[in-house]
Specification:
single chain, mainly beta, elongated
């Protein structure tokens, strides 16, 4: 079973959990274990395309030209 274990300051958790007084302002160990194997995915929110249409200039036609050989080699292609 995979898990995550991390030592952090308890103040990081104060907005998430009620921290007992004896653990406040101390380093604590957080262990995250899975409780279920299958978790239902949250429904995807709708993305409205085109919201940057007036804020981003159009691409020039040269953008789609093939890259020069030296550029391809620099990328290892």
């Amino acid at each position: 079973m995979e898990y995550i274990s991390k030592t952090i300051k308890s103040s990081v958790l104060s907005g998430i959990f009620e921290i007992p007084p004896n653990l406040r302002n101390r380093e604590v160990q957080v262990i995250i274990l899975p409780v279920e194997n299958d978790i239902a995915e949250e429904p995807r929110r709708e993305i409205k395309f085109g919201f940057l249409k007036d804020k981003v200039p159009p691409l020039p036609d040269s953008f789609f030209d093939p890259l020069p050989e030296e550029e391809l080699q620099a990328w290892g292609l």
